[in-house]
Design a protein that fits this description.
alpha/beta; Rossmann fold; 7-stranded antiparallel β-sheet; 8 helices; 26% helix; elongated; methionyl-tRNA formyltransferase activity; transferase; Formyl_trans_C; Formyl_transferase-like_C_sf; Formyl_transf_N_sf
């Protein structure tokens, strides 16, 4: 079986390795040039391809006639997309004889679209997963071949959940390939009414809603913590970033979330009366702790 692979990120690395491990002849890998302005915390698809002698291209636009011709020349049975960041249009999707398939980081039809793991945590989901589905010109709505769920624990960060989803993606692809090759893999139509579509996120989208509940704020912080840009608020003392919180019972409700120091610890009092223990915070680029809170902020609570 021959395949062309469009891939990036850790899911791209592990799924490319799964194809190679199953003996698939990968004729071409299409990936992205790393952006020097981006925090590259993930593995390199290009490096894996080169280690295995697979040709690699990194077009800015994969849908140009030149790239389509390169893909068509491979005469591939399948086209796979594993966390590739650009939409693939009809000429590419039709270039493989037996179809095009995508690995998506959610339990479709839930969280179709961009950054599904971050969105799932923001919304307080207790599970997500990986889904292999057939591609068409509309994003993430083709028939499902297989999917696998993973838990989202109450304090899991997006990075921790992403590691689980990466493993689930590898398992789903590995166990689906024999059926795809044999032509016996299931193709189950999605009921799109059971999920929704979500767009991408920018650093500015990390601005904290000071009227959110303690649970909502905790979910927001852990969805956006490192290696992502973080949850932030512009305060009277400067820009505050919250990197790690834990839920810590109840307190007196605040008109808007406010940060204070007590008993050697930072606390965030929230509008619903919930309270968060703040384990890691940053103010104007420097660590903020209970010990230096008074010197940097003053004795009054810091409103977000």
């Amino acid at each position: 079986m021959k395949a062309v692979v469009f891939a990036y990120h850790n899911v791209g690395v592990r799924c490319l390795k799964a194809l190679i491990g199953r003996g698939v002849d990968v004729s071409l890998v299409v990936t992205h040039q790393d952006n020097p302005n981006e925090n590259i915390w993930f593995g390199s698809v290009a490096q894996v391809a080169r280690e295995h002698g697979i040709p690699v291209i990194t077009p800015d636009d994969p849908n140009t006639p030149e790239v389509v011709e390169q893909v068509q020349a491979c005469q591939a049975d399948f086209l796979f997309s594993f966390y590739y960041r650009h939409m693939l249009k009809a000429p590419l999707l039709e270039a493989a004889r037996r179809g095009a398939y995508n690995m998506h980081g959610s339990l479709l039809p839930k969280y179709r679209g961009r950054v599904p793991i971050n969105w799932a945590i923001i919304h307080g989901e207790t599970e997500t997963g990986a889904t292999l589905h057939q591609m068409n010109v509309k994003p993430d709505n083709g028939p499902i071949v297989d999917q696998m769920a993973v838990p989202i624990l109450p304090d899991d960060t997006a990075d921790e959940v992403f590691a689980k989803v990466t493993l689930a993606a590898e398992i789903v692809l590995w166990r689906s390939l024999p059926g795809l090759i044999a032509g016996s893999a299931p193709h189950i139509q999605q009921d799109l009414s059971l999920g929704g579509y979500f767009g991408g996120r920018k650093p500015e989208d990390g601005r904290i809603n000071a009227q959110a509940s303690a649970e909502q704020l905790h979910n927001f912080v852990r969805a956006l913590t490192r290696p992502f840009p973080g949850a932030f608020a512009d305060t009277r003392a400067g820009r505050l970033l919250l990197w790690k919180t834990l839920r810590a019972g109840e307190s007196k409700p605040a008109a808007r979330a406010e940060l204070y120091a007590a008993d050697g610890q930072l606390w965030l009092r929230c509008s619903d009366g919930g309270c968060l223990m703040v384990l890691e915070a940053e103010l104007e680029g420097l660590p903020l702790t209970a010990d230096n809170f008074a010197g940097r902020v003053g004795t009054d609570a810091l409103a977000l």
